[in-house]
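Dear H.,

Thanks for agreeing to be a second pair of eyes. The structure we're designing against is below in token form, covering all 324 positions.
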């Protein structure tokens, strides 16, 4: 709600107020990454914001004019750099000049898309819509240490409506465990369980990558299915007290579920594409069962734009999202 509201406010010029922020979460109110995301929205536009503190449950935002340029934003914790990027990306994509972002904080942490998802799944669809956005990771940042760094170059262009209905033929699959500061056998066990549950995948599709110890500790399993028109990346983050095998089993089940379906977008890509599709004024996509994030993104977009957005169930359990 916070990041999409900021992006839509900057593009439409409409101010907003949100109350009871994250009211049902164990720790209600804004977290550090949310504060940084709103601060970034203010920096690129001269927007004014009241109530912007960690833990705040109410926020009022008055947008300014987006100015392209070079910007650096540091979360200061392992808070997600990806969520900060998603707050300012669309306003800068629609700006009147190129921009460069340097974002520091978490790159691979729970409850947020890892950098690999943004680079391989999300940005290719955005680039099909007209802009040119490239991202590179300079340093990984795992929870709870953070300290990661990504760099993003944006060449703006009007967003053109597109239809994302068919995946196309499958081009390949891959599974990788990336770890740092932990015993190798944890990463190995995680990958072994994923290999077992993804029985049809070839052995050479799997790999283990160890990063320098000062970038951790942390471990993530990433499973990738590449199609002609889209790439899906499913991830599972190592957690204290959660066996590696359990994490891998859940991750593999999610990937198997996506492969067995026929929809273009997985649940996370679908919720992230609502914003650019709305700003393009049209488009359509098929998705697996929509998440609460997707439904929330649709509701917010309707409030800011008044556009018609429909989500209809299709045969086989997939859903069709149409905008405009």
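And this is the sequence the design step returned. I haven't edited it by hand at all.
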């Amino acid at each position: 709600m916070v990041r999409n509201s900021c992006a839509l406010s900057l593009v439409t010029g409409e101010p907003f107020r949100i109350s009871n922020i994250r009211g049902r979460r164990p720790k209600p109110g804004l977290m550090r990454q949310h504060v940084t995301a709103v601060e970034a929205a203010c920096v690129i536009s001269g927007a004014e914001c009241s109530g912007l503190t960690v833990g705040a449950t109410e926020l009022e935002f008055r947008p300014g004019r987006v100015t392209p340029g070079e910007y650096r934003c540091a979360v200061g914790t392992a808070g997600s750099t990806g969520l900060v990027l998603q707050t300012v990306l669309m306003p800068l994509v629609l700006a009147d000049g190129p921009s460069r972002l340097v974002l520091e904080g978490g790159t691979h942490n729970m409850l947020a898309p890892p950098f690999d998802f943004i680079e391989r799944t999300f940005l290719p669809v955005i680039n099909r819509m007209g802009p040119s956005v490239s991202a590179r990771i300079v340093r990984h940042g795992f929870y709870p240490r953070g300290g990661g760094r990504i760099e993003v170059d944006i060449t703006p262009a009007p967003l053109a409506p597109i239809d994302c209905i068919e995946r196309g033929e499958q081009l390949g699959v891959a599974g990788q465990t990336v770890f740092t500061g932990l015993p190798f056998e944890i990463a190995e066990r995680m990958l072994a369980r994923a290999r077992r549950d993804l029985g049809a995948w070839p052995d050479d599709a799997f790999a283990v990558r160890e990063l320098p110890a000062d970038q951790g500790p942390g471990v993530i399993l990433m499973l990738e299915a590449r199609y002609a028109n889209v790439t899906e990346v499913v991830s599972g983050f190592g957690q204290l007290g959660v066996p590696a095998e359990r994490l891998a089993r859940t991750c593999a089940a999610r990937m198997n579920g996506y492969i067995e379906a026929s929809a273009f977008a997985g649940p996370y890509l679908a919720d992230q594409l609502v914003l650019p599709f709305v700003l393009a004024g049209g488009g359509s996509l098929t998705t697996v069962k929509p998440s609460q994030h997707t439904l929330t993104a649709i509701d917010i977009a309707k409030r800011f734009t008044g556009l018609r957005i429909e989500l209809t169930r299709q045969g086989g359990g997939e859903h069709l999202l149409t905008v405009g």
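Two observations from my side: The helical segments are 2-12, 32-43, 81-93, 115-128, 184-197, 244-260, 267-280, 292-305. The CA atoms of residues 4 and 87 lie 6 Å apart.

Warmly,
E.
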